[in-house]
């Protein structure tokens, strides 16, 4: 079963690589480094240093998908080409175990200086800082799928090393943890590991007990139709990293950078991009540039964002059917003006937690939540409506939300 899942991850990631432009020919080339320090799990290290780098250059760790390699990730993504433009150094680690997935499961990799893959990658970083005079305050991580999971691990276990990260289709830090020696956690992959924000945050804080320094910024990308590492993992990642930074799960801003994308920001520390109708294969042209803009590794103007016009004259009908410890809610959103792409925001009363939903994507599961349209019901014509529903548990509190807003505009 695990091999089939690895194969699915590899197929999706390989397809993504085919649509991303390879780096242009340069005198600089990818070089393997074989003696870089502590390497408990025998990772391979490939390094790309552009012909021209900035003084005290930044360092980016770019981690591959399952069955991938560092050289394949170098060839199939834009990071090296962007390094040529902006003068930073890229490290491409390669996993060295069955399936070529990174270890994001063992207690060693999830603990600061505990060993395994995370320590090996940190050794690569320390080697580059010492050998190339890189800036230790500007070290970042990114990756897709298994590499996105490793990005979460690196930022969680080594906040003293990494200043920020971007995870394309990953899971929260320690979500994949196992105790039986297995490297695959099906429950997490299926989006069934649900914790409170504090519980997720405690896992990160417990990885490096006593650490009191700054925590890395995090950008998260996920497709709503991801069938390999399912979409609920995005909401759990948001819970984790907002709690780590002491932030509310209520976004400080919401916009729409591209068709079918919804971006929520939580102060300037955490950012999440939800890609409506997109599967596990999500890393395409232009996304690397957006990721590096978030990390501060590129120059120039940020991409123009397009925001749907706010809804006006919206009305919400909210019908509950309750029983001992649970309830279902049916929600109808009506608007007097046409809406193309909608997000309904409301706060669930204390003790209520969403367990499943239909005709909308609802994140997070409790507190201040957002219900976003799915692929087939994003358009509400003038005078029309859209409906969705969800099932939830309660602790005796069966009150209704006090207010709703549609695309940022209050509804009656």
UniProtKB/TrEMBL annotation:
GO molecular function (one): hydrolase activity, hydrolyzing O-glycosyl compounds
Signal peptide boundaries: 1-27
GO BP terms, alphabetized: carbohydrate metabolic process
Protein name: CBM2 domain-containing protein
Gene3D superfamilies, per the entry: 2.60.40.290, alpha/beta hydrolase
Residue intervals of the CBM2 domain: 307-412
Keywords in alphabetical order: Hydrolase, Signal
Organism: Actinokineospora fastidiosa
One term under GO cellular component: extracellular region
Keyword Hydrolase: yes
InterPro entries cross-referenced by the UniProt entry: AB_hydrolase_fold, CBD2, CBM2/CBM3_carb-bd_dom_sf, CBM2_carb-bd_dom_sf, Esterase_phb, Plant_Biomass_Hydrol_Est
Source taxon at top rank: Bacteria
Pfam families: CBM_2, Esterase_PHB
PANTHER family assigned: FERULOYL ESTERASE, UNNAMED PRODUCT-RELATED
